[in-house]
Specification:
globular, 6-stranded mixed beta sheet, 27 strands, 5-stranded parallel beta sheet, alpha/beta, binds 1-deoxynojirimycin, Rossmann fold
């Protein structure tokens, strides 16, 4: 009888999204009351066991993540806090939600999460590629598309953005993040949060974001996944924490604790990062979910003797929800009874989870409308955003003698097209492609045929496989190259070569692909290498054989269209690298903002140059840009002052093009040494042929010139600084602040 009454009350509340309290409706079901009041009321009514269930996450539905496939999808308690939801339609969600609303004592809705990393069904380029657009507004739009498709399909919460700064291309998860730079990653983190969450989480097209993997996962030793990371506190603050701080400031509702052991304390039981920094100093009021099985894995890491101890450590350190391993479900209540976990901490964690559920409006609208797929997935405007992202992500790495674009002079050249990407369009989806389908990827071959129809003769030949030893098609490839005017090689990586648990010992192309490049070059024709891959590659051995190199990354559903547009000249490339391309694996880790050397001219490799093959920010265009003088509004600035740096850029070529201007600062001398240069601002603008535009950077000393110590305390010192843009440098000083010799005081 009680149950019936409760569910009747709930239905009333949910149907009307009650604006006013009705007699008999408990406050937590009253949509008119403030969230915190509803949380308080609900918390007061919950038993310990009900609370523990709210802190637990299991799975529901198909599991297309290879790493997790064999996980049992057991019978789910009606009071479960959250489920990972693998379905594409809301039916299963609604059925499960009905169970939660009607069969649990208090009718607390389940929170459904999923890995919507670069699209739900409309798959955009991988995030590493998206960062090469340097277009935060566009990335935000891409995330909004993901959010709309996901929420309308039954997903309330995405496990994205992944904002782990990464500098080792062997680590397959470098593809999931925004590259090597803390500032750029922070900018894209905030954009992604805005795109996913918008201004109103209750909207039917927004989801809660999850900043992951907190923290330092990108520092995985030698690129191996799930392993130890050696991160000094200074590096933690300088490099790995800034994107998280930006994401929290942007309002991210959740954070995922990481798998990696951070210098002796695993990310999933690290009280310093999870509680002291994230919750106390940054005031994060959402909840922390562990990564998949990350609580239990503390045992494997040697941080706990058994799962119960792991639960205690993770929970007390600040992990609020336990993903899939059920350590909390099985042990938390007992730990409370034994006095090893406080009831205050339980209430804090449950409060955080409930708060996010209320903010999402789940109590008032627990079910997802059953919108037909055609009205919620693959909408033309969504595809258009993905296509623009893919176009702007393409980086023209090399273009000797203006070889590209092809076939512009009306001579109808003969182009021999070959390589493992031909007919392998599914590989263009990239890893973590949610509900993306190979059949919906725009085929590379079709795109090229359409693009060059009437402009060039295309001859498709096999070339070589992605890897292995099969050279049987080499002879035919060389013959085709001999007959052709240009050779177009479509090469790179399979989608499962990057992403989770996808580690490669070398970032070079597989030997067979390198061999085919050398083989066709023997024909003496210009060679264009087009690459689709999920990591920065080591191209030193093949670069000399290639007259042009186009990095298309893994573009998602737009498939071959964007790169075909670049090859034909319909699209003028504007992407710039978000990550350094080493010459070879031996240079890793290599990144632009390293600290200075004691002997800058010495200490180089004897066998190869020490410079990267393509540096951070590299990317060519079909037009040319001339940078004018770098102007500063003053040559000295006080700690509270403002100083504007400006530069005029002129499009000196014959066609319109977008230019990304990256502003760096350099502090030549500081009590805590600083990197050679640090990105502090970037801006992309479209310039018509012949047009000049002024780009500016307003320097705010505390924001742009300060530094942190190894406990995150921020300082600004007097002295000389430089602002650097496209190789131009201007000096200024900060005066009236503390001198570099004054002791650090907190
Ligand atoms: C493990 C991955 O590390 C994480 O990124 C992902 O969100 C979870 N599995 C859920 O699938």
């Amino acid at each position: 009888m009680k149950k019936l009454l409760l569910s009747a009350c709930f239905l009333w509340g949910s149907c009307l999204a009650a604006q006013t309290a009705a007699p008999g409706i408990p406050p937590y079901q009253n949509a008119a009351l403030p969230v915190e009041q509803r949380v308080d009321d609900l918390l007061d009514r919950m038993t310990l066991e009900e609370k523990v269930l709210q802190l637990s996450q299991q799975t529901l539905g198909l599991n297309d993540n290879e790493n997790n496939v064999n996980e049992a999808v057991g019978s789910i308690p009606a009071g479960i806090g959250s489920l990972i939801y693998y379905e594409e339609d809301p039916a299963a969600r609604n059925a499960m939600q009905r169970r939660a609303m009607e069969n649990s004592r208090l009718g607390i809705p389940v929170l459904f999460g999923y890995d919507v990393i670069h699209g739900f069904r409309t798959i955009s380029p991988i995030p590493l590629a998206q960062a090469c657009t340097w277009n935060t507004a566009l990335v935000e739009q891409g995330c909004a598309v993901s959010a709309a498709e996901a929420r309308r399909s039954g997903v309330d919460w995405t496990f994205s953005p992944m904002i782990d700064v990464a500098r080792d291309g062997r680590w397959g998860r470098i593809s999931e993040g925004y590259g090597e730079d803390p500032y750029a990653t922070a900018a894209f983190a905030a954009a992604a949060v805005r795109g996913y969450q918008g201004n109103d989480l209750t909207a039917p097209d927004r989801v809660a974001a999850c900043l992951k993997h907190f923290v330092g996962y990108g520092a995985s030793e030698a690129g191996r996944d799930y392993v130890y990371t050696e991160i000094s506190r200074q590096t933690l603050w300088d490099t790995y924490l800034p994107p998280y701080e930006a994401g929290v400031r942007a309002g991210a509702q959740t954070v995922m604790s990481s798998f990696n052991d951070i210098s002796g304390t695993p990310g999933s039981c690290n009280a310093y990062t999870l509680t002291e920094v994230l919750k106390e100093r940054w005031g994060f009021d959402g909840f922390v979910v562990s990564d998949w099985d990350a609580v239990a894995q503390i045992v494997a890491q040697g941080g706990a003797a058994d799962r119960k101890e792991a639960a205690r450590r993770a929970f007390n350190a600040g992990v609020d929800m336990d993903m899939t391993d059920r350590c909390y479900e099985h042990h938390l209540a007992r730990l409370v009874r034994e006095g090893k976990v406080s009831m205050d901490r339980v209430n804090d964690a449950v409060r955080r989870v409930l708060r996010v559920k209320f903010r999402l409006g789940l109590f008032d609208r627990p079910y997802t409308d059953n919108t037909p797929q055609a009205e919620r997935l693959l909408l033309p405007e969504s595809r258009a955003v993905a296509e623009r992202l893919a176009e702007e992500a393409i980086v023209l790495l090399k273009n000797e003698h203006g070889l590209l674009p092809l076939a512009t002079d009306g001579s109808r050249p003969d182009i021999a097209v070959m390589g493992p990407l031909l007919g392998a369009d599914g590989e263009l989806l990239g890893n973590w492609s949610a509900h993306g389908r190979t059949s919906e990827v725009y085929p590379l071959r079709k795109a090229l045929e359409e693009e060059f129809a009437g402009k060039a003769e295309l001859h498709f030949v096999e070339g070589c496989p992605f890897d292995g030893q099969d050279r049987s098609a080499f002879m035919a490839a060389r013959k085709a190259a001999k007959r052709a005017d240009v050779v177009l090689l479509l090469m790179g990586e399979r989608r499962k070569w990057s992403g989770e648990n996808c580690v490669r010992a070398a970032v070079e192309l597989p030997a067979i692909q390198e061999a085919l490049i050398a083989e066709v070059k023997k024909a003496g024709k210009p060679v264009v290498l087009v690459l689709a891959n999920g990591r920065p590659l080591g191209l030193e051995r093949v670069e000399p054989f290639c007259d042009a190199i186009v990095e298309m990354w893994q573009p998602g559903l737009p498939g071959g269209r964007p790169v075909a547009g670049v090859l034909s000249g319909r699209v003028n490339p504007s992407g710039k690298l978000s990550v350094t391309f080493p010459r070879s694996t031996g240079q890793i880790p290599i990144y632009y903002n390293r600290r200075k050397s004691a002997r800058p001219t010495l200490g180089k490799y004897q066998d190869i140059p020490s410079t990267p093959l393509y540096g951070f920010g590299h990317g060519l265009s079909y037009t040319t840009f001339a940078y004018g003088d770098l102007r500063l509004s003053a040559d000295s600035i006080g700690p509270e002052g403002k100083l504007t740096a400006e530069i005029t850029v002129t499009n000196t070529g014959k066609r319109d093009g977008a230019e990304v201007v990256q502003w760096f600062v350099s502090d030549p001398f500081c009590r805590i040494t600083r990197p050679e240069r640090e990105l502090k601002h970037f801006e992309k603008q479209m310039l018509r042929a012949g047009e000049s535009r002024t780009f500016s950077f307003e320097i705010s000393p505390m924001r742009d010139l300060s530094f942190v110590d190894d406990d995150g305390h921020r300082f600004l010192e007097n002295g000389e600084f430089f602002v650097i843009v496209n190789g131009k440098k201007a000096r200024f000083v900060v005066s009236d602040g503390p001198s570099p010799f004054e002791p650090l005081s907190h």
